[in-house]
Design a protein that fits this description.
This protein is of the alpha/beta class and 494 residues long. The protein contains 18 helices and 16 strands. About 1% of the residues have low confidence.
Length: 494
């Protein structure tokens, strides 16, 4: 291999976004990935039966749709189709009712009965200003954003617990809707800022949708690999790096790894204070993921659920809150909150004709070795009687197995770190530029840096832009979509 200007360790969406950015700046980039395939959590594999293609971790992509990086990268121009279900997400309830969220705030509100006005007042400003909201949230968080009505509305509730928002709503559907989106935070619903996580995801549902990638999430990271190699870079898989000393000489090294792995890779080369700060970084609960190969559409009791790309299962606000509190206390809930994605409602390529894949996970204590497959299936059958009769095969991955497959998911934490207020604003430590490490030329670019978890590529892009300024004096915008056939492509990133 020709000596590289930059080495990127880890090929998740952030490592690849860093590599794409560096390649677009004219650098020779070499990516090193421990797994057999590039992509990190954004991969697709036949986990159950031949012909059934399951997303390994990331499945629905509101943040990819909202990400400035992917907008500049040009997904559609690279043949990546983000497809949108008619119902963005749904939260079924016992007795056949459901909270049903579509792209329209007004339509969603009308289905919430007496909470129509309250929901519209809560979500209308956020949905209308979703571009401002996304730009602020998907930033380095080093400077206050330019004020807007959407950001002011978000600031009023974003740092509160989900219980505070739910207290202003009265119908079971509206309160359950809040529980379902807020529980993505993987925290008790009494904790801050679970309201902010839920409001952001709901705003994205209305503003950009929660699309799936046609053919599987791996199409997205495959396009990023193609962009790196087309620019003269190389991607090496099947090589786990144990120490920075193993790496070839390069002017910059970007690490798409957890803070715990950074400590292991650098060892005593890190100053003691920084190393100690990294060891204090907190990780959240894990997940147990369950994939199903099914012989046909899931028989949801509520007809709108059959049109939903994503579903939140767990019953009422109080039931979801109780389940998440159990996980936070180190216990495995008997009736867990379950997140489901049924890509087959819009993407028939995931399975043989007439059949479907079903993606699901629930939260569990960190490092759990418990297979929650039976509990997850029972929760699905609670709202879709007869589902078990359709199951052709099932594949479970415990939290411990998830961490083994991807070391960035410490203890099975797919958020790469607890989403507390402190760890959103100072991630992974309190530094002006969180991507720089104390080691010259070494940068951290994983989801353990701002803006945090999700398939948006911004952690990698922002770290790469820092490295370009520091080590190559490149301060001009980098066009990651150079050469694509489109007009007036947005440039640069901040």
């Amino acid at each position: 291999m020709t000596q590289a200007d930059a080495i990127v360790v880890g090929s998740g969406p952030n490592g690849l976004a860093a590599a794409v950015t560096l390649t677009a700046a004219g650098l020779r980039v070499h990516v090193i990935e421990g797994a057999a395939l590039a992509g990190g959590g954004c991969r697709t594999s036949e986990l159950t039966l031949p012909g059934f293609h399951h997303d390994v971790c990331s499945a629905a992509h509101p943040l990819a749709a909202a990400s400035g990086f992917f907008q500049r990268f040009g997904l559609a121009e690279r043949g990546i189709d983000l497809i949108h279900p008619e119902v963005v997400f749904a939260h079924p309830l016992d007795g056949g009712g459901a909270a049903v969220v579509t792209r329209s705030v007004a339509q969603t509100g009308r289905r919430l009965g007496s909470d129509e006005t309250a929901y519209s007042a809560l979500m209308g400003p956020l949905a209308d200003g979703v571009d401002d909201l996304a730009a602020a949230v998907l930033s380095s968080m080093r400077r206050p954003p330019r004020p807007s009505s959407a950001l002011l509305a978000f600031a009023r509730d974003g740092l509160r617990p989900a219980t505070a928002v739910a207290a202003r709503l009265h119908t079971e559907q509206a309160r359950a809707l809040v529980a379902g989106v807020a529980a993505h935070a993987m925290m008790p619903l009494t904790a801050r800022p679970t309201a902010g996580v839920g409001l952001l995801l709901a705003a994205l549902a209305h503003g950009v949708g929660w699309p799936v990638v046609a053919g599987g999430s791996a199409r997205l990271t495959d396009a990023m690999v193609d962009a790196v190699t087309a620019g003269g870079g190389t991607v090496e898989t099947g090589r786990w790096v144990q120490s920075l000393d193993e790496l070839p000489a390069a002017r910059v090294i970007l690490l798409d790894v957890s803070p715990r792995s950074l400590v292991a890779l650098a060892g005593d080369r890190l100053p003691a204070r920084y190393r100690q700060a990294l060891t204090r970084f907190r990780y959240g609960p894990g997940i147990c993921k369950v994939d199903f190969a099914v012989s046909g559409p899931v028989p949801w009791t509520n007809r709108h659920c059959a049109l939903a790309g994503t579903l939140h299962l767990g019953g009422s606000f109080e039931e979801v809150a109780a389940g998440e509190a159990e996980v936070a206390a180190g216990r495995h809930p008997g009736s867990p909150y379950v997140l489901v994605v049924q890509a087959g409602v819009v993407d028939p390529t995931r399975a043989p004709a007439g059949q479907q894949t079903l993606w699901a996970y629930c939260h569990v204590p960190s490092g759990s070795t418990v297979d929650m497959g039976d509990r997850v299936q029972r929760q699905i059958e609670r709202f879709a009687p007869g589902f078990g009769d359709l199951v052709l095969a099932r594949h479970s991955a415990t939290a411990a197995q998830t961490a083994l497959d991807n070391p960035n998911y410490v203890g099975g934490d797919i958020a790469a770190g607890a989403q507390s207020v402190r760890q959103i604003l100072a991630r992974p430590t309190a530094r002006w530029n969180p991507y720089r490490t104390p080691l010259p030329g070494v940068y951290l670019c994983s989801a353990s840096t701002p803006p945090g978890p999700g398939v948006h590529g911004r952690c990698g892009e922002l770290a790469a832009l820092t490295a370009l300024r520091d080590r190559f004096a490149i301060t001009e915008p980098v066009d990651v979509g150079a050469g694509l056939p489109r007009a007036a492509a947005p440039q640069g990133a901040t």
